[in-house]
Amino acid sequence: MRQSRMFIPTMRETPQDAESLSHRLMLKAGMIKQMASGIYTYLPITKLVLNNIEQIVREEMNAVGGVEIHMPVLHPKELWQESGRWDAYGRELMRIQDRHDRDFALGPTHEEMITALLRDELKSYKKLPLTLFQIQTKFRDELRPRFGLLRGREFIMKDAYSFHSDEASLDETYNDMYNAYSKIFSRVALNYRAVEADSGAIGGSHTHEFMALADIGEDTIVYTQGSNYAANIEKAACPAPESIEINSSEKVGKIETPNVSTCAALAEHMGISIEETTKTMIMRIGNDYAMILLRGDHELNDIKVKSYFKTDDVDFATDEEIRNLLNADPGSLGPVNTDLPVYLDYQVRNMQDYPTGANESGYHFINVNHERDFEVEDYDDFRFITEGEMVQDGSGPAKFMKGIEVGQVFKLGTKYSDSMNLNVLDENGRSVPVLMGCYGIGISRTLSAIVESHSDDRGIIWPKSVTPFDIHVITANPKDAEAVKIAEELYESLSSRYRVLYDDRKERAGVKFADSDLIGLPYRVVIGRGAKEGKVEVKARNSEDSMDLAIDDVLQYLE
Ligand code: ATP
Ligand code: MG
Ligand code: MG
Ligand code: MG
Prior knowledge:
The chain is an alpha+beta fold. Strand 1 (32-36) and strand 2 form a beta hairpin. It binds adenosine-5'-triphosphate and magnesium ion (3 copies).
C-alpha cells in the first residue's frame, strides 16, 4: 500500500484532551477520529488492526465449534420487555423510534435477540449443544465515555451464546470458551489475567473476566502471590452478610441485603449516576424499602456500601407516589415505609426482573444526593478488601493490580430461557428450559488495550499478530530518482510475501521517520544514500539498532 494513497492523519502535537496513553497514541498515529463523545471513526490503520483481531477471534471461536451469524442492531422493544430489561437496563440503553412511533433499542448486547431466534427454531434437545457468535457494533450510552476506544458509546464486540440441555454440556462449553479466550488474548499479545467475577445483575452462577493488566484499567484485581487466586475486587471482597442491623432506624429493623457488587452492577444497569457525588439506592426488600448509600470514588468499581440509614430532612414520598413511580400493581408491593427519603429527580425503574442475591423480587432505586439530602452513619462491615488482608480462599494476603476488562464468560443458566420461553423437548418428550452461556470480547477495547501496553516514547510497537502491515518501506529522499527506483522495486518484491506500507510521500526524511515510529510497524526498511551501493537500512521497531543490508538479503533477513 502506497502511503501517498493512504489516509493516516498523524499529529505532531500531543493531543491534550486524551486521558490515556492508548488514546493519545491512537490520535497521534492518525488511527481514530472522534465524531461525538464516545463515538469514533476507525481510520485505515485501526480498521486493519481490527480485522486482524477479529480474524484471531473467529479462528478461536470456530475451533470450539462457534458458528458465526449477524443479528440486527435494532431490537424491538417487545423483546426487551419480555426479559424485563427494557426498564431494567436503564439509561445505558439507547432507544429510538421508527416512523410508526414503534420503539426500538440499539443493541447493547444480544441475549433477547438470540433467545427469540432460538425459541422459534429450536424444538428438540437433539439440536444441542449449539454455539452462535457474531462480531458487531454495540451501543451503550455510557455515563462517562472515555479513554478513546476503551469505553465508547458505539463499539465493536464479539458476543457468543451457547445453548444446552444439561449442566455438563454448559460446563464443557464454558471451559472451551475460557480456553479459547486465553488463546485469543495470548495471540494478540496482551498481558492478561482471568479473574473470578461477580455475576451481578445478570444473575447466573459462574463467571470470569479477562483482564488486560494496565494501570489505566478501571477494574481492581485482587490476587495473591504464588497462588492461582485472582478475582475482581467486586467479587473478592463482598462477603454479603445474611442480614445487617440498620443503624438509625427502628422502623425498618433488620433487613436482608444483597451483596455489594450486585448493588453496583444494578446501579450501573440502572444508569444511576454514581460519579462525582455519593449516591444512594432505595431497594425494596420484602415489605420494606431500605436505603443503601453508595460511596463512589468517581468509579463504579470503587463503590462501597457504607451504611444504611434513614433521615428526616428530605422530601417524603407517599405509598401512592412510590407505587406510581414504580408503575406497579399496588397489591404486589405490600406496605411501604413512607418516612424513608426519596428524592424524585431520578427516574425510577422497576427491578422486578432481577433475581439476584438475597432478594426475591422488586427492588427499586431512587437517586439521592449524599450530604445535600441526608446525614450518614458509617457501617463499617461493608467495605472492599484492603491490600494485605487475607483473601477469601486463604491463599495469602491480598495484592492489588489494575485491569482492563477485555472479555467476560458467563453461565447464564435459564434466566432468558425462563423469561422468554426458550424450551426444548428432552429425551422423555418433556418441555425443559434451555441452559445458556454468553461470552463477550470487546474487540475495539482489545485494540486499545494492545496499544496501551505496546509502545515507547516514539509511538506504537505493534505485536506481529495484529500489526496493520509487516514492513514499512521508506524512501529517505524522494528527489533521489535512483533510490526511488530501487525502493519501488523492493516494494514490489516484498509485497509478494508481506503486507508492506510504502512511504512514497514527498516529505522530509525526518517527518517520515517520526511517522514511521508513531505507526509502529515491526520492521522498517529505509532506502537512502547507500542504495546506489546496493545497501538499505533495516531496523526492527522494538530495537534501537539498525543494520545495513544488501538489498538481496532483505527478504532473507525478514524470514
Ligand atoms: P465494563 O465493566 O467495562 O462496563 P461490561 O462488563 O459492562 O464492561 P460486558 O457486558 O461484559 O461489558 O460486555 C462484554 C465486553 O464488551 C466487555 O468485556 C468489554 O471488553 C466490552 N465493552 C463493554 N462496554 C464497552 C464499552 N463501553 N466500550 C468498549 N468496549 C466495551
Ligand atoms: Mg458496562
Ligand atoms: Mg464489567
Ligand atoms: Mg463484563
